[in-house]
Amino acid sequence: MGCRPERLLAETIHRSRTLPHHLEDLGPEWFEATGQLVQDLVARKRSTWNRWNLLAEAERACAGLRMATPDDRTRMIDRIADTAEACSVALNDYRYTLPVDAGPDIAAAGHTVFDPPAVRVFTDARTLADEAAVMTVAETGDGPGLDPWDAVDALTAGNTSLASTRVPGLTPDQQDAVIQVLTSRHRLDAVTGPAGTGKTSTMQTITRIWQQTHGPGSVLALAPAAVSADVLGTALALPAENVAKWLYESDGPGTANRAARYLTAERILTATSRKGGTGSHRVRQAAGQALTTLAAEQARWQLRPGQLVIIDEASMVSTYQLAAIIAQATAVAAKVLLVGDPAQLDAIDAGGILGWLDRTGHTIQLKTIHRFTHAWESDASLKLRAGDYDGITDYRHHGRITAGAYQEMVESAYVHWKSDRQTGLASIRPLPDFGHARRRRYHAGHRRPHRRGPGHPVERHRSEVGKANSHR
After folding, report:
1. How many degrees, rounded to 5, is the angle at CA 45 between CA 309 and CA 340?
2. How many percent of the chain have pLDDT more than 70?
3. How far apart are CA 19 and CA 410, in angstroms?
4. How far is the first Cα of the chain from the last one, in angstroms, to the nearest whole number?
5. Which of 22, 133, 241, 278 has the smallest number of Cβ neighbours within 10 A?
6. Cα–Cα distance, 89 to 128 (Å, whole number)
7. Among the listed residues 30, 125, 49, 64, the one whose alpha carbon sits nearest the alpha carbon of residue 323
8. Euclidean distance between CA atoms 446 and 224, whole angstroms
9. pTM
10. pLDDT tens-digit map of 267-310
């Protein structure tokens, strides 16, 4: 074409209808607002951060902004990070002072080269305030609860053995956990333990006794996701919600929307009260019904005095979410119970509260593992939880790990999965991505017989299987 690539690229860029920005085009107000935005975005994801985190977030926030030169872009990102640092709270200071006569071999970004950006750690005032609020509530002893003897009587009710207070179905540490939660009077309690220590059974007993004492509906169950909320609600035999949904409806846009609709209905009711006629009467009646419905809906999303809020898998709930729920509970003299394992998945956003409570002795720990059939399985699971490689060695030693070619392992997994299903066992086949899962699901569906009647298995047609799977 007789045109060099550099010229072609330059002319293509220069023909853009969007003119590039120069650093001088961006005023101090823009840098202040963007730096605050970057700091807020980082604070949502992390409890602490350094300059590299701020630089990366600034690049993401300004990805759609085209600058005139690479130097302008570099200086813009650095200035945004400087503003974000100024909005943050430093947790440590620089270790060295920059000499006045320092040369370029010593000075870097206004500090010594011996203080790299990753050395200084930041947080923000909101995170510190949320953490302080949770720490304070964990040591406050004016929450609702039971007297010790009442809790023991409720726990041992139905136990006919006069020689022992042991409750059938609960291990001693589970019983201790139930008694401590019911009688501690702390506004915030936490029960932690590895998988298989009976956290669900403990929650079931606490729920039963709490509702016997405070009445039906006195326990609210929350979980970090909708699926886990469904599982929790089934286990505790009461309605459960996910944390984000609860906050949205109780103190977020859901509440604001209901308030706006309530005010509209109230204005309509006031305006039509001055008029007569059948039409006005119907309008007033509809407005009155709307007020009643909205008030009842709002009451559904409000905590009540003496209520117990159980948050399962609490390690996955962010700090600001926990602080918001605890603030709601404190305002009405309710109690919050966190349940989970701090060694499992952490919150996607800034979190770590359950781990802090566990490390500082503010949790009730369950240690007896009784989920497994063989004793070695309990020990191996604890090793895996602690990151000990010997746990994998134990599983391999007992023949629980099989290795081989990919297709061979896929076929073996399917055969064992099918055998488990036929014998009534629950079986899980983890796969690396959605594409693998879709192919394996199709494979399993195509090979699964479709029974037309007793004793008449018919293999499903390929197109029928594909259609069925596409609607799952």
Report:
1. 35
2. 81
3. 54
4. 53
5. 278
6. 9
7. 125
8. 35
9. 0.75
10. 988 888 766 655 677 888 898 999 999 999 999 999 999 999 99
